[in-house]
C-alpha cells in the first residue's frame, strides 16, 4: 500500500462517498464488552465504576466507563490514566486494566486515581485508529469538538477536576500498521501525498513541549528499561520525525495538537509509546511496560 490507498482520488480530500466506503471496510474483530467491560465489572468490588458517556454509531452503542478510587479524598492529588484513545493500541487498554488489578491498591492512601481504560470502543473492536467518522480522537481534544464524541465525553469527565491533577499518563503504541495502513489512510483522507516514515523499534515517551519535565520523563524511561528496550534515535537524532531531547523522549505541543495528554493542566504529563511488532518484545512485555510506566510516573510525581 506504500504511496497509495484504495479509497479516494489522489490529491483530493475525501467526501461523504469516500467516508462511507472507508467505513464499509471496517469489520468488528474483537469485543469491547467481553474484553473491557467485563474486566471493569470485576474491578467494581474494589473501585468505583462510573459511566461517563455513551457512544452511538448506529446500530452500535457503547457505554464509556471510568474507574476511580473508592476512598476518594478531596485533600489528595489526582492522577489520570487514559488508554484506548486509539482503539488499535492494545497494550494501553490491557496495561491500564492490569495496573488497576495489580498495582493501584498501593497508591490508595496517596492519590485519587481516575482511569479511563478504553476511550474509543468502536475503534477498539475494529482495531482502528480513527472513530466511525474517520476522525482521530487524539487530535480532537479541543473545546466544542463535534466529530469526536469519544474525546468530548472524556473532557466532560475531567473538567470538574481541572487544576487538581498532579499527573496524566496516556497509554499508546506505535505499530507497523501506522506505516502500512493508518498514515496512508490519513494522507488519502486529506488529499495529500503519503510520505513514508520509519517506525522506531522500542518504547519511547512523548512529552509536552510547553512543559517537558525531562527529569520526570527520564525516570519513566529508566523504569521501563527494566521491562523492555528503549527506542534509539535514528540517524538524524529523531524518533518519528521529532528530535530526541533525552534518551527515548520526544516532545509535541499537546494542547495545540489537541492531544489527550493536554486536557488536565497537570504538572506531569506524558504519552507512552510501545512497539508491539518488535522481534525483541512480546505482547506481555508491552503490557508490563505500560504498567511500569504508570507506576514510575506516579512514584516520581509523589516524590517531588
UniProtKB/TrEMBL annotation:
Keywords attached to this entry: Hydrolase, Metal-binding, Zinc
InterPro entries attached to this UniProt entry: AstE_AspA_cat, Peptidase_M14
Domain named Peptidase M14: residues: 28-304
UniProt-recorded Gene Ontology molecular function terms: hydrolase activity, acting on ester bonds; metallocarboxypeptidase activity; zinc ion binding
Record family assignment: Belongs to the peptidase M14 family.
Cofactor needs: Zn(2+)
Protein name according to UniProt: Peptidase M14 domain-containing protein
PROSITE patterns: PEPTIDASE_M14
Biological process terms in GO annotation: proteolysis
Amino acid at each position: 500500500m506504500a504511496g497509495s490507498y484504495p479509497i479516494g482520488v489522489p490529491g483530493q480530500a475525501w467526501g461523504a462517498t469516500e467516508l462511507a466506503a472507508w467505513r464499509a471496510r471496517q469489520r468488528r474483530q474483537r469485543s469491547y464488552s467481553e474484553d473491557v467491560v467485563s474486566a471493569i465489572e470485576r474491578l467494581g468490588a474494589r473501585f468505583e465504576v462510573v459511566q461517563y458517556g455513551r457512544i452511538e454509531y448506529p446500530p452500535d452503542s457503547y457505554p464509556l466507563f471510568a474507574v476511580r478510587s473508592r476512598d476518594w479524598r478531596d485533600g489528595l492529588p489526582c492522577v489520570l490514566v487514559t488508554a484506548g484513545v486509539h482503539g488499535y493500541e492494545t497494550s494501553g487498554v490491557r496495561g491500564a486494566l492490569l495496573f488497576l488489578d495489580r498495582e493501584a491498591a498501593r497508591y490508595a492512601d496517596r492519590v485519587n486515581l481516575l482511569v479511563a481504560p478504553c476511550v474509543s470502543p468502536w475503534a477498539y473492536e475494529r482495531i482502528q485508529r480513527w472513530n466511525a467518522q474517520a476522525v482521530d480522537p487524539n487530535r480532537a481534544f479541543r473545546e466544542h469538538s463535534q466529530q469526536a464524541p469519544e474525546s468530548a465525553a472524556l473532557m466532560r469527565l475531567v473538567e470538574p477536576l481541572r487544576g487538581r491533577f498532579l499527573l496524566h499518563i496516556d497509554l499508546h503504541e506505535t505499530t507497523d500498521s501506522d506505516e502500512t495502513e493508518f498514515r496512508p489512510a490519513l494522507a488519502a483522507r486529506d488529499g495529500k501525498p503519503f510520505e513514508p516514515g520509519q517506525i522506531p523499534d522500542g518504547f519511547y515517551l512523548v512529552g509536552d513541549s510547553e512543559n517537558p519535565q525531562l527529569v520526570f520523563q527520564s525516570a519513566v524511561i529508566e523504569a521501563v528499561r527494566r521491562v523492555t528496550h528503549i527506542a534509539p534515535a535514528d540517524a538524524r537524532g529523531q524518533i518519528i520525525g521529532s528530535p530526541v531531547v533525552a534518551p527515548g523522549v520526544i516532545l509535541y505541543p499537546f494542547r495545540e495538537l489537541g492531544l489527550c495528554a493536554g486536557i488536565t493542566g497537570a504538572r506531569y504529563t506524558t504519552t507512552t509509546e510501545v512497539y508491539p511488532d518488535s522481534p525483541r518484545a512480546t505482547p506481555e512485555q508491552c503490557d508490563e511496560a505500560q504498567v511500569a510506566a504508570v507506576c514510575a510516573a506516579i512514584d516520581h510525581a509523589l516524590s517531588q
